[in-house]
Design goal:
Keywords: Carboxypeptidase, Glycoprotein, Hydrolase, Protease, Signal. It is an enzyme of class 3 (hydrolase). This protein is 33% helix and 19% strand. It is built from 14 helices and 18 strands. The strands form 3 sheets. Strands 1, 4, 5, 6, 7, 8, 11, 12, 13, 14, 15, 16, 17 and 18 form a 14-stranded mixed sheet that branches. A two-stranded antiparallel sheet has the order 2-3. Strand 16 and strand 17 form a beta hairpin. Helix 4 crosses helix 12. The longest helix is centred in the middle third of the chain and has 24 residues. The radius of gyration is 22 Å and the shape is globular.
């Protein structure tokens, strides 16, 4: 998901536990490797179904000598498909990024491949998996025997999908000696390595259409990660190597265009962009309205046109104090204006239940987690490192989006109308202002309603490879966006 300002105070540091009876399937000059049991496997044609549920397979690639992937089969979450979990080991094994992979319920041998990441920076994709779009959701009614319940709206109804905990320090990901990743551009290199090793190792997915998706700070992550894939593809073409078949990027309630963030928050609180009756007091709305011009001008001048870390930080602090403080003090859920904040700072009781479930020894054993420390939904340590580098403000992320569009990558920007944190108004504004070759065509297009089962789901607008969509009555975390995703993957309009 998720979540930018509400970060839990736990960082997952640990040492990698030794793995016995390791299945070795690393690339070697002969193209063949021993599996440690006297049997040889040609890793260029290794099939995921050949993996063991008892031990990790260790996969490497000569182009990424500092990386390896450990992966095992598991019975976690969805009994109807093959499920795998594991780690991407980075920098000679000093950093370890955890992932889940679920094959498609529809046609795993033909369906596209998707990646999902949550935001923060510093929040685990386990939250998206177990609260929103994963094959199962955390059981909040104690009706199941294993702590989760079936999700008929899971995105693996249509695609093979993996959930990645990144950067290091997030969720079950960890570092051996305190190593860190502190910028999105740095994190992009690890994500590209993981994707490359995955597609080049498991032949059944090689060349499949690939889609990168996520939410919240994913609006910063995904354009940069996808750009790294595109740029590395160009190098691969020049060198005669296979490329990653990146088709699209999907960003939900993303924090992409920070220059429009506060304009949107004002409209959500003081206008009718979310609810029919504005939720904020008139006197506070007046103060916010008076501060808004100075806020937007400061962000544009010091964070956009010419980045200055000190002046940009001052502009952001002014905007937060004058525009955002009132809502934070209201007790409302910052991810859904129709609700009050309950539970911890993340405002959902599900977060505590997910943590309790993932901390169970039986769950950790099932997943193959090697950390001795507890799971954390979000890491404030990771968040502080990114803030210290002004990661969100120093590089206008919408420029990456424009670059992707110009290189034939489709982009879907969608947002629930009840979100305040990364609201739909803000996203609409930066998309409207986006400078790319299709800008005029997009401006000429009319808004139209899109429906699911004869009911209005929201409004949408598209031109060329760019589509924007709202989801009526949804907040930051969306549980039923499957129809939208199915239509997008099919290449049609919403």
């Amino acid at each position: 998901m998720l979540l930018e300002q509400a970060l839990v105070l736990v960082l997952l540091h640990c040492a990698l536990a030794s793995v016995q009876r390791v299945f070795s399937a690393g690339f070697v000059d002969s193209g063949v490797a021993s599996n440690g049991l006297g049997v040889e496997a040609n890793v260029s044609t290794l099939h995921l179904s050949a993996l063991s549920s008892e031990t990790y397979a260790v996969l490497s690639h000569p182009r990424f000598p500092y990386h390896q992937v450990r992966v095992k089969k598991t019975n976690f979450c969805d009994p109807t498909v093959n499920v795998y979990t594991g780690y991407l080991d980075v920098d000679y094994g000093a950093k370890h990024l955890f992932f889940y992979f679920f094959e498609s319920r529809h046609d795993p041998d033909q369906d596209d491949v998707m990646m999902w990441i949550n935001g923060g920076p510093g929040c685990s994709s386990s939250m998206g998996l177990l609260m929103e779009l994963g094959p199962c959701q955390i059981d909040m009614k104690n009706v199941s025997s294993n702590g989760t319940v079936w999700n008929p709206y899971s995105w693996n109804e249509k695609a093979n999908i993996f959930f990645l905990d990144q950067p290091v320090g997030v969720g079950f990901s960890y570092a051996d000696h305190g190593e860190t990743v502190e910028t999105t551009e740095e994190a992009a290199k690890n994500v590209h390595a993981f994707i490359s090793i995955f597609f080049e190792t498991f032949s059944q997915f090689k060349g499949r259409p690939f889609h990168m998706s996520g939410e919240s700070y994913g609006g910063r992550y995904l354009p940069v990660f996808a750009s790294e894939v595109v740029d590395q593809n160009q190098i691969a073409v020049a060198e005669g190597r296979p490329t990653i078949n990146l088709k699209s990027v999907l960003i939900g309630n993303g924090n992409t265009g920070i220059s429009t963030l506060y304009e949107g928050r004002y409209e959500i609180e003081c206008g009718k962009a979310a609810l029919d009756v504005p939720i904020q007091q008139i006197s506070k709305c007046v103060r916010m309205k008076m501060a808004l011009p100075r806020c937007t001008k400061g962000i544009e001048k010091h964070c956009g046109n010419y980045f200055d870390s000190i002046d940009c930080a001052a502009a952001v602090n002014f905007c937060d104090n004058e525009i955002s403080t009132n809502y934070w003090a209201s007790g409302r859920n910052v991810y859904d204006v129709s609700k009050m904040c309950i539970g911890d700072d993340l405002c959902y009781l599900e977060n505590g239940a997910i943590k309790a479930y993932l901390d169970l020894p039986a769950t950790r054993s099932l997943l193959g987690v090697s950390s001795p420390n507890n799971f954390s939904a979000c890491s404030s340590d990771v968040g502080r490192l990114f803030v210290a580098h002004s990661d969100k403000w120093s590089h206008p992320t919408e420029y990456y989006v424009a670059g992707l569009l110009e290189r034939s990558v489709r982009v879907l920007i969608y947002a629930g109308t009840y979100d305040w944190q990364c609201n739909w108004v803000s996203n609409k504004l930066w998309v409207d202002r986006l400078e790319w070759s299709g800008q005029d065509a997009y401006a000429r297009e009319e808004w139209r309603e899109w429906e699911v089962n004869g009911r209005k789901a929201g409004e949408t607008k598209s031109a060329g490879r760019l589509t924007f969509a709202t989801i009526r009555g949804a907040g930051h975390m969306m549980t039923e966006a499957l129809a939208m995703v199915q239509r997008w993957l099919d290449g049609g309009s919403l």
